[in-house]
Amino acid sequence: MGSKGDALRQRIVAAADELFYKKGYENTSFRDISDEVNISRGNFYYHFKSKDEILNAVIDARISAFESMLKAWDKKIIDPKKRLYYFIDMLSRNEDEITSYGCPVGGLCTELAKTSHAMQGDANRMFIVFCDWIVTQLKLLGIKNNTKQVALHLLVLAQGAVTISNAFEDKRFLQQEVKRAKQWLDAEIPKYSRDE
Amino acid sequence: MGSKGDALRQRIVAAADELFYKKGYENTSFRDISDEVNISRGNFYYHFKSKDEILNAVIDARISAFESMLKAWDKKIIDPKKRLYYFIDMLSRNEDEITSYGCPVGGLCTELAKTSHAMQGDANRMFIVFCDWIVTQLKLLGIKNNTKQVALHLLVLAQGAVTISNAFEDKRFLQQEVKRAKQWLDAEIPKYSRDE
DNA sequence: GTCTATATCGAGATAGAC
DNA sequence: GTCTATCTCGATATAGAC
User: Fold this and answer.
1) Each residue of A80-93: pLDDT tens digit?
2) B182 and B91: one domain?
3) Residue A185: left (phi > 0), alpha (psi -120 to 50), or beta?
4) Cα distance between residue B40 and residue A125, in whole Å
5) Structural domain harbouring B89
6) Residue of chain A minimizing CA distance to B181
7) For residue A132, which residues of chain B lie inside 8 Å, CB to CB?
8) In total, how many domains does chain A have?
């Protein structure tokens, strides 16, 4: 019945996820995806009504993946400040893909803002997942005012670093910005919660 | 002979410039451009060999426009710190277009990073124009160390603010980030050169 | 469920009249 | 120089056999 637990469906979504990231949504064709999954092009339409529906599935899959990733972080890392460090260090850990292809969240939102205005609202839910999680950590650290604004500024620092380091394909610059983001975070966190 | 001073050629470049910004390069067709300029599609190929050549012309035109814009700023504004404020305020002045379509520089670099790797080096020259100009202002303000790194960080703040405010189509957030960028700049500039 | 064919469309690009 | 007509290609999507 093509349910969400369908194995092939999941393989299609996984391949589309990666290709949308590396080539962009519009620039990825069914042929690109079928080459990866080894199915015929016609077979897509048993699992999805349209390309837009694949995009929807990819966005949902990314949101789920981000949510369980953050849950795993929460379990592994107790100190909220170290959690935020770990978030920033995601840029370091993925430096190769980021300097080559940018950010899967920001890149998709930027592309959709220029084309299918309809799907933009779905895509930016990815940002909200991270924003809410950062707000939670900030509150645990004793920050009471403007937590959302501060959380969004951390996303600003990350997205800006991605855009510039991607434009110049410069990993070293990305690392510099990781350092700066951590210093900014240190300054934002009240002293009594530092160096725990 | 289709020289660079050609009036129709310039009209094509101007229309392509705006469309590449608002719809993206790949997503803009010759039909889109011809609708704007009111010429036949075949006529493009008298002025340009290919779509890529139009992109090249657009990048050159943008660089020229940015350079003369910065020259005009230098003439109009004497204080280097106020020049940098004016640079940051560009986000405010263009808030409608930025929250709708992002940044013409960052957006193009991001798109080309995912597709035509060949042209990426041409596109990021747009960033270099701004980076060099910011470095000049910082040196005039007495900053001697890491001027390039500081200049690039200002671009990071701007690009990040654009990405997030564009994703949420949120002008108010953009204004908040403009304020934050100015505060960051104040902290970067040595005291003796402040409040001139 | 997965396949092979095919329909349909719009893209970039070319040829040649005027 | 600008036009109309056309070529070629690759895209999404559909129909129907197996």
Assistant:
1) 999 999 999 999 99
2) yes
3) alpha
4) 42
5) 59-193
6) A153
7) none
8) 2
